[in-house]
Specification:
Helix content: 40-55%
Distance between the termini: 62 Å
Radius of gyration: 22 Å
Strand order of the largest sheet: 6-5-4-7-8-12-11
Shape: globular
Largest sheet: 7 strands, mixed
Oligomer: single chain
Number of helices: 18
Number of strands: 12
Structural class: alpha/beta
Order of helices and strands: HHHEHHEEHHHHHHHHEHEHEEHEEHEHEE
């Protein structure tokens, strides 16, 4: 095949990546109007009828659906009807895992603006989110409850890369233990752990604004009686009394100095024999052995929080600084690792 043909293919493929912002927004719009939920899993429905059910313009809806279908999301028939395929089913709220809330999160205005401020991060090492929105990530979601609700659902529902059930299956706990979920969000991981271990007790430690949502989730699961809710700031202190302390997807949000402070607070709270359990990505020292998605997440952590995904050596440097032994990898999935350590 002629060399200029290869160059043309590369140009087309790269151009498609450059224009990928439109694909992201198409998926986000489909979720915001509820398209995947309005279309039954086995149904084949005329697009104008679907447009009416989700309050969309029929002509615009037809063009959206056929373009999504061209990218492998939904299937448009020759007759102009729409049906699900394996990718579009992941956009339903009831899919496990579901990408519905992920699609809404990554296409909301504050996140979209952050992507446009990547130049600032690369040139200065500063946070693109703060630059674009004039406020820190977590403060933005505290002040904007609608965005905050989407973020909480995104974190709680699980998604490829952070499947809550797989994480719960990978954490080893013993009968009668008390587990402290530090920064446990709305309680999604603790619910899975409590359901798996009938004699487990738990403490969910979160900022005050999250406690009500976590209490509601634990109550709905009939587990509130086995879990104490404690409000506070893990950069300042962590509750005592746990046999196991869990930091699930916490440290990657923070630069080294703050990550070390969180670990030091855990260390001060831990009684003799207690252990620390981390759920994080574990990067290879060789970038060629890293999954491209993991490196993309590392870039996002830098843009949002000045955080980072870490190698084993980088984790161990934090552990030594905070008074812990080197980490042990007790479980490894394609999307995450479960790491354990205890006070040195």
């Amino acid at each position: 095949m002629p060399e200029d043909h290869f160059r043309a293919d590369e140009s087309i493929n790269l151009h498609a990546m450059v224009r990928g912002l439109s694909v992201s927004q198409m998926i986000g719009v489909a979720c915001r109007i509820g398209l995947a939920d309005a279309l039954g899993k086995g149904d084949v429905v005329p697009i104008p009828k679907l447009a009416q059910s989700v309050s969309a313009h029929p002509g615009a809806m037809r063009r959206l659906c056929r373009t999504l279908s061209a990218f492998g999301i939904f299937r448009v028939t020759k007759e102009g009807h729409l049906q699900h395929n394996s990718k579009s089913l992941l956009l339903r709220r009831d899919s496990v895992p579901s990408l519905h809330w992920a699609a809404q999160f990554w296409t909301m205005p504050s996140i979209w603006a952050t992507a446009g401020a990547l130049d600032h991060t690369i040139r200065t090492g500063g946070q693109a989110f703060d630059r674009a929105n004039g406020i820190t990530f977590f403060e933005h979601f505290r002040r904007n409850p609608g965005d905050g609700d989407i973020f909480d659902k995104y974190m709680a529902v699980g998604y490829p890369g952070r499947p809550q059930e797989a994480i719960a299956d990978s954490i080893e706990l013993e009968g009668g233990e008390t587990v402290v979920d530090v920064g446990g969000g709305t309680g999604a991981l603790l619910i899975d752990l409590l359901q798996r271990h009938a004699d487990l007790r738990a403490i969910l430690y979160e900022q005050p604004g999250q406690i009500a949502a976590a209490t509601a989730a634990l109550t709905k699961a009939s587990l509130a009686g086995r879990c104490d809710m404690v409000a506070g700031d893990f950069l300042e202190w962590v509750p005592e009394g746990g046999d196991a302390y869990i930091l699930s997807w916490i440290l990657h949000d923070w630069p080294d100095d703050d990550a070390a402070r969180i670990l030091e607070c855990c260390r001060k709270a831990m009684k003799p024999g207690a252990r620390l359990i981390l759920v994080e990505r574990l990067l290879s020292e060789d970038p060629h052995e890293c999954d491209a998605y993991d490196l993309l997440v590392d870039l996002h952590m830098m843009m949002f929080f000045r955080g980072m995904e870490r190698t084993a050596a980088e984790f161990n440097a934090l552990m030594e600084r905070a008074g812990f032994k080197p980490i042990r990898e007790v479980a490894r999935k394609s999307q995450f690792s479960v790491l354990e350590t205890e006070p040195a």
